[in-house]
Design goal:
Pathway: Isoprenoid biosynthesis; isopentenyl diphosphate biosynthesis via DXP pathway; isopentenyl diphosphate from 1-deoxy-D-xylulose 5-phosphate: step 5/6. Keywords: 4Fe-4S, Iron, Iron-sulfur, Isoprene biosynthesis, Metal-binding, Oxidoreductase. Its EC number is 1.17.7.3. This protein is of the alpha/beta class and about 425 residues long. The chain has helices at about 45-60, 70-85, 100-105, 110-115, 130-145, 160-170, 180-200, 215-230, 245-260, 280-290, 315-335, 355-360, 395-410; strands spanning about 20, 25, 35, 60-65, 90-95, 115-120, 150-155, 205-210, 235, 240-245, 265, 270, 300-305, 345-350, 365, 375-380, 385-390. It has an eight-stranded parallel sheet with strand order 8-7-6-5-4-3-11-9. The chain has a five-stranded mixed sheet with strand order 13-14-15-16-17, sandwiched between helices. The chain has a two-stranded antiparallel sheet with strand order 1-2. Helix 9 (about 245-260) packs parallel to helix 10. The termini are far apart.
Length: about 425
């Protein structure tokens, strides 16, 4: 008997509390949120505001900034003012290490304007100072009604927790390997810090957790265990993912597994930018992970064939790239004018083998002629052949068809 394969879809989300970060909701049944982080000197409020605006317009729904000294803390109100002038309203998260307790205390305007604080338990302080300084940040979060992400990182893990886990491991009849102990220390650090935050007075629905590592398998194992042991919303990210295709592949491999298992409420793809490369690439990759998995829709996606011996011309590749770039550039405008346009599907195919069939599955598809085929490109709209394009102006004509489809098929937003 032929086996029937059920429709592929991500499993039900791991149940978590709902946390509000300004107008953005994280956890529970809310959509998985894309976030990113600036790499400008925060003290340069103009450059930082410009990059925040770029990230927000690319689709980042939360943006984190470094707050590492008095100058950067004092820049936060100026950044907020600059963003208001630019009509950008994305929530800004303050990333604190070592001196967050002092910076937030000394700069109340910074503490008030940030939408969320990120605390790394391993970088709050050492010994007796650690608990006091952690509590001080949490008290300020309570005072200003701010949520907190307790973000553990294996590159800066609280050594006292790790030492305790190592001692406990030595007492086991069958000790765990070092990687397993490290993963347990990450989870314990996050959970104990969350418990401490609640004891100080921070409500449980104001806490988000993360346990970031740079190894794909360790990240998957750590988050599975963290999800099993708590109901706080979880922020996913492969830390120090790397540059280019390596960073993209590693992040996708790790996050894809966890998201498919219903684990994760916010994500960040921590790409190292190419020299002079756009910071917004990490936002695009995060969106594409969620969209290709069917978890969210952000922009029309283009299906295109990889090419083969039947497609010796590069025209279909150039057209596919042109169309993908065009729809991404148009999305900020379309998003304001039309409802549902992000669900539009497009296909740019290179020859007759799969071209017409694949094009019929898209809202708009074009099947370009392969090597030796008749120089004509049939266009399919909602599964039906609508026209045939010929000549040197196919790219512009196809974009015109796309514009007309969007304008006529999607209901315009009012107001």
């Amino acid at each position: 008997m032929t086996q029937v394969i059920p429709s592929a879809r991500a499993q039900a989300r791991h149940p978590t509390r709902l946390v509000k970060i300004g107008p953005v909701q994280v956890g529970s049944s809310a959509a998985i949120v894309v976030q990113s982080m600036t790499n400008t000197d925060t003290a340069d409020h103009v450059a930082t505001a410009i990059q925040i605006a770029q990230l927000a317009r690319a689709g980042s729904e939360l943006v984190r900034i470094t707050v590492n000294n008095d100058e950067s803390a004092k820049a936060v109100p100026k950044i907020a003012e600059q963003l208001a002038k630019m009509n950008v309203a994305v929530p800004i998260i303050g990333d604190f290490h070592y001196n967050g307790h002092k910076l937030l205390t000394d700069n109340p305007a910074c503490a008030e304007l940030l939408a969320k604080y990120r605390i790394n338990p391993g970088n709050v302080g050492q010994g007796q100072k650690r608990d006091a300084q952690f509590a001080q940040i949490v008290e300020l979060a309570c005072k200003y009604d701010k949520p907190v992400r307790i973000g553990v990182n294996w590159g800066s893990l609280d050594q006292s927790v790790l030492a305790r886990m190592m001692d406990a491991n030595n007492q086991r009849a069958e000790p765990w390997d070092v990687s397993a102990v490290m993963r347990e220390a990450l989870v314990v650090s996050a959970l104990e810090s969350a418990q401490m935050a609640e004891e100080v007075g921070l409500a449980g629905d104001r806490i988000i957790l993360s346990c970031k590592v740079s190894s794909v398998q360790d990240l998957i194992a750590t988050y599975r265990e963290l999800a099993r042991r708590c109901d706080y919303p979880l922020h996913l990210g492969l830390t120090e993912a790397g540059m280019g295709s390596k960073g993209i592949v590693a992040s996708t491999a790790a996050l894809g597994v966890l998201l498919q298992e219903g684990i994760g409420d916010t994500i960040r793809v921590s790409l190292t930018p190419e020299p002079n490369g756009a910071r917004t690439q990490e936002v695009v990759v995060a969106q594409e992970i969620l969209q290709t998995m069917g978890l969210r829709a952000f922009t029309p996606m283009v299906t295109a064939c990889p090419g083969c011996g039947r497609t010796t011309s590069s025209f279909f590749q150039e057209l596919a790239q042109s169309v993908q770039t065009y729809v991404r550039d148009q999305m900020p405008v379309w998003r304001e004018q039309y409802d549902g346009v992000e669900n539009l599907t497009l296909a740019v195919m290179g020859c007759v083998v799969n071209g017409p069939g694949e094009s019929k599955h898209a809202n708009i598809g074009i099947s370009l002629p392969g090597t030796g085929e008749t120089p004509a490109a049939p266009v399919f709209i909602d599964g039906e052949k609508a026209m045939t394009l010929r000549g040197d102006n196919i790219a512009n004509e196809f974009r015109g068809i796309l514009d007309n489809y969007v304008a006529t098929k999607y209901v315009k937003k009012i107001g």
